[in-house]
Amino acid sequence: MRIYPNAKINIGLSVTERRTDGYHNLETVFYPVGLRDVLELNREEGPKRVCYFENTGIAIDCPEDKNLVVRAYKLLASAYDLPAVRINLFKTIPFGAGLGGGSSDAAYTLKALNEYFELRISEKGLENYASRLGSDCAFFIRNRPAFASGKGDVLEDMALELDEYEIVIVKPDCKVSTAEAYAGISPAKAVFNLRELNLLPLTAWRKQVKNDFETTVFAKYPAIRKVKEELYNRGALYASMTGSGAGVFGIFPKGDVVLDTLQGNIIWRTDRSVK
Ligand SMILES: C[C@@](CO)(OP(=O)(O)O)[C@H](O)COP(=O)(O)OP(=O)(O)OC[C@H]1O[C@@H](n2ccc(N)nc2=O)[C@H](O)[C@@H]1O
Ligand SMILES: Nc1ncnc2c1ncn2[C@@H]1O[C@H](COP(=O)(O)OP(=O)(O)O)[C@@H](O)[C@H]1O
């Protein structure tokens, strides 16, 4: 079977507390976008509980057994008598970008295995497995706009619809590691309650809605700040770094958005092919 794990953007992100387990509590809104990887998964002859894995497209910077797709298979294989599978991941969502591509691959692998082998795991069950693989993995099980708290794994559906706008995602030529971004942060109470994001007109987001990672990440990677400024200069109603960066997105009124100077770094925009 073939599946298409999609990316997410974070609209606002507050890191509110350092936890005793080494993680942080946060508040954010996850919004799914149409930038996608391609994952081909098929049953394979041979010994059970083996995952033959191949990565094409963007080369992922970690060993195969650390790949979230392989980890997702192994997690389910520890609970179910799974036949061997062959998985090819054609990677197009850049990593180190705050787009959650690896987390999405993991969540979609769980969903695909559940369907392919008729495991009958509930949505809640899949979310529990997903949150063991990464803090923002659980979101990609339902894959609907959500307010998230806790480690990013406590999810509340949010009625938020951005179809009337054009979203542009830009990735400057740098990568930010999630752990590095968290290490630079001083947790503080959220200044705006993101649960109420959908009650605020989009034109007011610029003043009220912030991503806490921007301060330290922009200081280290000025190119990311420049992209955000450029998006505002080009007419974005709202622009922000997503997650821990380095990806930046702009939300524009639909129409002729001209982004000439950023062209080479645009990785996705609504309803248009890449670049
Ligand atoms: C920052 C966010 C915002 O949505 O997204 P990305 O920028 O990665 O896409 C997420 O919190 C990233 O979640 P995810 O990428 O799943 O993180 P994990 O693999 O669980 O953790 C990687 C590392 O980040 C730190 N970490 C992560 C999540 C969290 N709530 N607190 C943390 O302190 C920990 O140091 C952890 O070892
Ligand atoms: N399938 C995968 N796709 C991308 N990265 C993966 C994958 N599996 C493991 N990783 C590891 O996770 C790290 C972060 O991946 P990802 O969640 O895509 O990025 P981001 O933190 O930008 O959202 C990568 O640097 C890589 O080492």
Helix content: 25-40%
Ions, cofactors and other ligands present here are: 4-diphosphocytidyl-2-C-methyl-D-erythritol 2-phosphate, adenosine-5'-diphosphate
Number of strands: 12
From the alpha-carbon coordinates, what is the Rg to the nearest angstrom? 19 Å
- Strand arrangement in the largest pleated sheet: 1-4-6-5
Which residues form runs of ≥5 with pLDDT under 50? none
Overall CATH class of the largest domain: Alpha Beta
Q: How much of the residues is beta strand, in percent? A: 25-35%
Largest sheet: 4 strands, mixed
- Spell out the helices and strands N to C: EEEEEHEHHHEEEHHHHEEE
Distance between the termini: 28 Å
Which architecture of the largest domain would the CATH scheme give at its second level?
Answer: 2-Layer Sandwich
Total of domains: 2
- Which fold does the CATH topology of the largest domain refer to? Ribosomal Protein S5, domain 2
Enzyme class: transferase
Catalytic activity: 4-CDP-2-C-methyl-D-erythritol + ATP = 4-CDP-2-C-methyl-D-erythritol 2-phosphate + ADP + H(+)
EC number: 2.7.1.148
Organism: Odoribacter laneus YIT 12061
Explain this structure:
The chain is 27% helix and 28% strand. The protein is an alpha+beta fold and 275 residues long. The chain has 2 domains: 2-157, Ribosomal Protein S5, domain 2 (2-Layer Sandwich); 165-269, GHMP kinase, C-terminal domain (Alpha-Beta Plaits, 2-Layer Sandwich). A 4-stranded mixed sheet has the order 1-4-6-5. The chain has a 4-stranded antiparallel sheet with strand order 2-3-7-8. Helix 2 packs across helix 3 and helix 7 crosses helix 8 (222-233). The protein is globular. The chain starts with a strand and ends in a 6-residue tail after the last strand. The relative contact order is 0.18. Adenosine-5'-diphosphate binds next to helix 1 and helix 2.
